[in-house]
Design a protein that fits this description.
The complex is a heterodimer of chains A (107) and B (396). With 107 residues, chain A is mainly alpha-helical. Chain B is of the alpha/beta class. In chain B, the strands form 3 sheets. Chain B has an 8-stranded mixed beta sheet with strand order 6-5-7-1-10-11-4-12, with helices on both faces. In chain B, strands 2-3 form a two-stranded antiparallel sheet. A two-stranded antiparallel ribbon of chain B has the order 8-9. In chain B, a hairpin with a 2-residue loop joins strand 8 and strand 9. In chain B, helix 3 crosses helix 4. The longest helix of chain B has 16 residues. Chain B starts with a helix and ends with a strand. Classes of the chains: A mainly alpha (107), B alpha/beta (396). Chains A and B meet through helix 1, strand 1, helix 2 and helix 3 of A and helix 6, helix 9, strand 6, helix 10 and strand 8 of B.
């Protein structure tokens, strides 16, 4: 399980360098964070609290009441909860930011 | 015009979160004394008056928890050591006192004086030593994220010193460039992380925005905009690809994840030979996050705004006439001499970003505030006559 999680993090955060022509290269190894570093239940920081306020402001400005998510920023406690709410509103504000699949057709 | 500037088609800014210069890059002084970092002699008094020295004990996570306070009043304490007098002088003596206030734990408050050794941050330190590292890049405001990031986007925070929603009364660097027939993009990590520029997204052009996946694709295809601003992931969350670890390095997020992200952004540019030859990448932090630095922020010219006591949380009006705490900043391009150290007599802040970008792509800057227009620009650092062929290569 931990290996799979690490692989996922590596795939998403890491785009390996394609082959380079011969040259004077200094190769530097970058360690991966441990699986235990991922804590989506971490309480949100002041930065994320402010971010939620901004997102909520945008939601209130853009959407009629009946179409709003309904969650209140002050009720959100963890990073996973915050991310879920932020994704909902961002999807409306910026639908082009929807994740594009990296899989090639047929794979 | 130097050939590096002549061929410069793209500027990319990656803005990370909440780490000070001494904390991240200060250890480089041991190998190069021209880098104004740590030498083990700087200290802060604790609340008992005992000296707490800077120490190479920083860890990747779980050390700066709770998140050190970096709102305006706390930063004022950190910079002035608690002196509220009219004749006070910035002395950087209040970091331990400030952190103590959060838990009233004497031992824990000392951790605010910890810094990373060079070997712990192979990405940031190797980019710093292989390209250009700034000895004097400061946050624009002695305060938190939103107002400081605003300076990178607008050259001003329109009088804000905090985290509140605000509507800009001037044009962002993205709109300026678009109006002049150039291209600009602001890439956020994914929809669950989104952008800290929500108001811009709300008010103006959604087409200005893209995701990190798009950034990678645009680098690969060579379709990067003239100006590009990249935001890291601000939260641990799941998306369709699985677990997404926060990579902004904001305490208490894992610093190694941020290292990996910086390396990935670098690799995306480095991997396209044409892009590499025509791009400058600036890696910079929005503010210090409450973590120690030994260099007092200098005074600066105001930007026409002021923030009263109700906004500063203190008994004085702030006229935007002093910079925030020093942050790490590294400029990367094959046209920069290896190991360039930008000297201490050149002072940069986040308004330097829109000023530099505006001048490079539009020839002059008559749009930004006077403070922005007078801020230092950094593209003269691309001074080589011949492009470097050596390279740093990151791998896992």
């Amino acid at each position: 399980m931990a290996t799979r999680k690490a692989a996922v993090r590596k795939r998403v955060l890491w785009e390996g360098l394609p082959p380079l022509p011969p040259g004077d290269y200094t190769s530097i190894r970058v360690p991966l964070p441990p699986a235990s570093a991922f804590r989506k239940d971490r309480p949100i920081s002041d930065l994320i609290k402010a971010h939620l306020e901004h997102i909520h402001h945008a939601e209130s400005a853009r959407l009629p009441k009946e179409k709003r998510d309904g969650r209140r920023p002050e009720d959100i406690r963890t990073e996973a909860e915050a991310a879920s709410y932020i994704a909902t509103v961002t999807r409306i504000l910026h639908p082009k930011g929807r994740k594009r699949s990296r899989r090639k057709a047929g794979s | 015009m130097p050939p590096g500037l002549d061929s410069l088609k793209h500027i990319v800014v990656l803005m990370m979160e909440n780490r000070s210069f001494d904390h991240m890059l200060g250890s480089l002084k041991a190998t190069n004394p021209s880098i104004d970092g740590v030498d083990g002699t700087f200290w802060n008094p604790d609340t008992m008056g005992n000296p707490v020295y800077e120490q190479p004990l920083a860890e990747f996570q779980s050390q700066l928890d709770p998140d050190p306070d970096h709102h305006f009043p706390a930063v004022d304490l950190q910079i002035f050591g608690g002196d509220q007098s009219a004749t006070r002088v910035a002395n950087m003596q209040g970091f331990v006192k400030s952190y103590y206030q959060q838990q009233e734990d004497l031992a824990h408050s000392q951790k605010i004086m910890y810094y990373f050794t060079e070997d712990k941050l192979p990405v940031l330190t190797s980019l710093a030593t292989n390209f250009a590292v700034f000895n004097r890049w400061f946050a624009s405001i002695p305060g938190p994220t939103i107002c400081n990031r605003a300076f990178a986007h607008y050259g001003t925070s329109f009088g804000q010193v905090g985290m509140n929603v605000f509507y800009p009364q001037g044009k962002s660097i993205y709109e300026r460039l678009q109006d002049a027939g150039h291209t600009a993009k602001l890439y956020y990590f994914d929809q669950a992380s989104s952008t800290m520029e929500v108001v811009n997204l709300l008010q103006h052009q959604p087409e200005l925005f893209g995701t990190y996946d798009q950034f990678l694709a645009d680098c690969k295809s060579g379709k990067l905009s003239d100006y590009n601003f990249v935001e890291p992931n601000y939260t641990d969350h799941d998306n369709d690809d699985g677990e997404q670890i926060a990579c902004d390095q904001h305490p208490d997020h894992n610093v190694q994840a941020g290292e990996l992200f910086i390396a990935a952004v670098y690799n995306a540019i480095r991997g396209n030979a044409a892009l590499w030859a025509s791009t400058a990448l600036l890696v910079v932090y929005d503010e210090h996050g409450g973590i120690f630095d030994h260099v007092p922020p200098p005074a600066c010219s105001g930007d026409g705004h002021s923030a009263g006591p109700a906004d500063t949380g203190l008994n004085y009006t702030f006229n935007f006439d002093r910079l925030g705490v020093r942050v790490p900043a590294v400029l990367i391009s094959p046209w920069i001499p290896k190991g360039l150290i930008v000297p201490t007599d050149r002072v940069f802040e986040h308004a330097s970003i829109p000023n530099t970008v505006t001048r490079h792509f539009m020839g002059s800057n008559t749009i930004g505030t006077m403070r922005e227009q007078n801020s230092e620009t950094f593209l003269d650092l691309l001074s080589l006559d011949t492009m470097r062929t050596d390279a740093v290569v990151f791998n896992t």
